[in-house]
Amino acid sequence: AGPMFMHALHLTPGEVVDYVYTYVNPAGAAMLGRAPEDLVGGRMLALYPHIAEVRDPDGRPVLDAYREVLATGAPYRTEFTYRAPEYTGTIRLTVVRNSGALAPTPGAADDGLAFSYTDVTDRVLAERRTRQLLEVTAALSGAVTPRDVARAVT
After folding, report:
1. What is the DSSP string of 68-126?
2. pTM of the shown model
3. What average pLDDT does this structure show over 102-127?
C-alpha cells in the first residue's frame, strides 16, 4: 500500500508513548479505513488502540519493535496477519528510523519512523492453497482403491 511516516511522542526522553501520523499515502489510509487527512496529525494509539495488542509471528509486540528501531536504527521486517475492524489480512511490513532523507517534509525531526507495508493476503492464500493441493496430490499418488482415494481427499 505504500509509505507512511510517524513521529514519536515521548512522555520522558527515551520513553515513547505513542506516534503521530505525519504522512500516509491514500492506499495505506484506505487499508486503515480512513482518508489520509483524517490520519495526519492523529495519534496512532488514540485512533487504533488495539495496535497495543498486535504481535508479530514471533509473539513480539510490534510496538516494542518500533521502539527498538528508534533506539538502534536497525530496520524491522515482518509479515503477519492483522485482524481489526478496519482491516483483516496479511501484511508485509518494514519499519526504519526516519532520517532527513526520508522525512516527509524538509527539516522534519529524525525522531520518527518510516513504514513500508503491503497487503500480501492474496499471495499467502494462494501459497496455502498450493500446499493443500500438493498434500492431496501426494496422498492420491499412493491411492490404489476407491477407499484410498476417499481418504486422500477428506
Report:
1. HHHHH---EEEEEEEEETTEEEEEEEEEEE--TTT-SSTT--SSEEEEEEEE-HHHHHH
2. 0.73
3. 72
